[in-house]
Amino acid sequence: MAVRHKVVKVESCFADGMTATRSVIEISLSPGIPTFDITGLCDSSIRESRGRITSAIRSMGFLMPKGHITVSISPAYMHKSGSGFDLPIAMGILFISDVIPYFDNVRVYAQGELSLAGDVKGSPLAGLRLCEEARDPADMVFIPEEEIGAAAAAGTACMPVNTLQDVVDVLNSFAYMQETFEPELDFGKPRVIHHLSDLKGQPKAQEAIVTACAGMHSLLLLGSPGSGKTMAAGIIEDLMPPLTEDEARQYMMLTENENDQRDGVMSLARPVRHIYGNCSISKLTGRAGSMVPGELALANNGVLFADEITDLDPKIIDALKLPLEEHLVRMTKDNVTRELPASFLFVAAGNPCRCGLYYENGSKCRCTSVMRRKYLSKLSGGFLDRIDIFTEMRSVKAKDLKDITGGISRHETEEDREARRRIATAWEMQKKRYCWTEGITKVYNGTCERCDMNLFKFSPELSAFASEAAIGMGLSARGFKNLMRVSRTIADMKGAEEITLPDVKQALMYKVRLDGI
């Protein structure tokens, strides 16, 4: 008796770097010699699934259908990889064999790898794929129990299974019951806390750090060795408010390859990424061939700290220019360009000269003006034009040394509490300002993509003063706009609706180019 032609569909997802794409798997059974073909620009991990699927089905006590089995995975023009297609393909074969009932009007989604014995196992980037599924939920969603943590972080309603037999039993008994798992939120492990007061004798640097955190403004710290530049990164990390759940979910997707997310714990600690002198372009921007994100994308919604920035290759410094302007990083693979968000607080630290003592009192510096200019020449004009706040740092004076000999306290100081209060006030002001503005997707003064200056609320007289000051300092149009952004942040920290003259004057203090740059 001839085998009746039949086609069934099961939905799934595949990941290409940090992008998940919805896929429809079609399985057809037609008369002919028993064969099993998989089409759709699939790599060896998918083509080799034929052996795993056949063994898993037979291990569960079922027979492969007689005839020609064709599996088509769409979109057919996109390259696909990964073992997560095992379960949906196996379910499609069981559908087509009438082992389990199939209904045309019921959307079924599945992902998971199969063992030869029929066990359902997790596969890489499960959370990323489940986030894509959650955007347009199917009627039934089956995942491995190993991926419950990823489902919790992605907010996906699903039914976890351990074996292929579990799927058969659920569908045959019409016992499908999906569940939504709640992630466990982790605010970070206790650590030694750096305080603003630890920057002894550095009032300008202290205020610059708070202002940078309040508006997510790029910050350049140049100063003597041991003046606290590296400590500033720890202070900023502690001052920044925790991530929101949506931001934490996005970060989890980016770091899913680096960290095991199966326990369902989602960290709310803001990411702090560091780049040093040995940093390469691929480490910074990501590996386009494998679509693995770099430090720019991994720092999204957090802090990117470039210590000893003058030791970086000039190509690395220039590669920072566009992300600092556009707050995204582009990766191109197979003539397809993908954009990853890269909106972060950029903090750079370095010495003002080779000996590092230029800002010290008493003419301790041994470098000539020519040597200083050459030493800082790596910092191109285009890069410096994108820095919102400049400040110098000097070594601790003798009278302040006695205050830090007792070590670093774990307890929050009143100065820290006040700084956090001012930052929280500024963030709330910015959220109210931008949330109803079309085209702006970031709520910070330093990172908003399209910013109408009229939103900043300042008088014509103040605009004239700021314009004349900007011209006198040789600021570009970008530099003037960044000056007003910093002024707006200073006003936000006070809860003021309108920018005042003292706000602009303080912002101008941060725009003064240090000698040699």
Characteristic terms for this protein:
517 residues, alpha/beta, Ribosomal Protein S5, domain 2, Rossmann fold, Helicase, Ruva Protein, domain 3, five-stranded parallel beta sheet, four-stranded mixed beta sheet, 20 helices, 19% strand, elongated
Short description:
The chain is of the alpha/beta class and 517 residues long. It contains 20 helices and 21 strands.
How would you characterize the overall build of this protein?
With 517 residues, the chain is an alpha/beta fold. It is built from 20 helices and 21 strands. It has a five-stranded parallel β-sheet with strand order 14-17-20-12-21. The chain has three domains: 6-182, Ribosomal Protein S5, domain 2; 185-395, Rossmann fold (3-Layer(aba) Sandwich); 450-517, Helicase, Ruva Protein, domain 3 (Orthogonal Bundle), CATH 1.10.8. Helix 19 (477-493) packs across helix 20. The longest helix is centred in the C-terminal third of the chain and has 21 residues, at 414-434.
Explain the layout of strands and helices.
Elements: E1 6-16, E2 19-30, E3 35-39, H1 44-47, H2 49-59, E4 68-73, H3 86-96, E5 108-110, E6 113-114, E7 120-121, H4 126-135, E8 140-144, H5 148-154, E9 157-161, H6 164-172, E10 179-180, E11 184-186, H7 203-215, E12 219-223, H8 229-239, H9 245-254, E13 265-267, E14 272-275, H10 281-285, E15 286-287, E16 292-293, H11 295-298, E17 303-306, H12 314-319, H13 321-326, E18 328-333, E19 336-341, E20 345-350, H14 369-375, H15 381-384, E21 389-393, H16 398-401, H17 414-434, H18 460-473, H19 477-493, H20 501-511
Parallel strand pairs: 3-4, 5-8, 8-9, 11-13, 12-20, 12-21, 14-17, 17-20
Antiparallel strand pairs: 1-2, 2-4, 6-7, 9-10, 15-16, 18-19
